[in-house]
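We emphasize that the prediction below concerns an isolated chain of 218 residues; any contacts that depend on oligomerization or on bound cofactors are therefore not represented. The input was used exactly as deposited, without trimming of termini.
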Amino acid sequence: MARALVTGGNRGIGLAIAQGLIAKGHEVVIGCRDLPTGEKVAKKIGASAVQLDVSAPSSILHTTEITPDIDILVNNAGVLGSGSVLSNPADFDEAMNVMVHGPMLLMHLLTPGMKDRNYGRIVNVSSGWGAFSDGVSGPGVYGVAKAALNALTVAAANTLPDTVKVNAMCPGWVRTRMGGMGASRSPEEGADTAIWLATLEDSGPSGGFFRDRKKIAW
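Result of the prediction step, given as a token string:
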């Protein structure tokens, strides 16, 4: 049994990922900004919850201090923002903090333990909207932040041993608060590839970008 931390794990894709990992027998901690809400969700699904704001380094530091020995990290938390990429510097800062700086700091703090234990799985929940192959077509700064998260995935995989696997995935268009109820996929369908990457065999890939368990272009 591995111990997993899923950021933004109290709803949507993150919740579906947490439930999927629990179903596979893993211990799951869900990170969420509102702890009372997270605790209610955690109790319902058989997880534990921690207050975690991935845009705040102090919150990340506290979380990693009280939840050591994380074997599986799923960087799922995200923000959509509004307007164009150049319209609001505050939106830009928030998106980069949540979807790039936060994941980087979590990886920085948690990968030493993974290396020591000769086991780690990191899943960065990205998007085709951040793919250069699709023109970085995401709205506002969202696509830019996801493109940066993709680059972080590749660079991290290049620096870590093969026992610690780092991959990015695109869940597709999912029925969540961000995706809207008109989306074509359920949260469980969107979560499937993340769960697969979070539980890869030792021979599994690292440094890749996947959708529906298939490699896609950056």
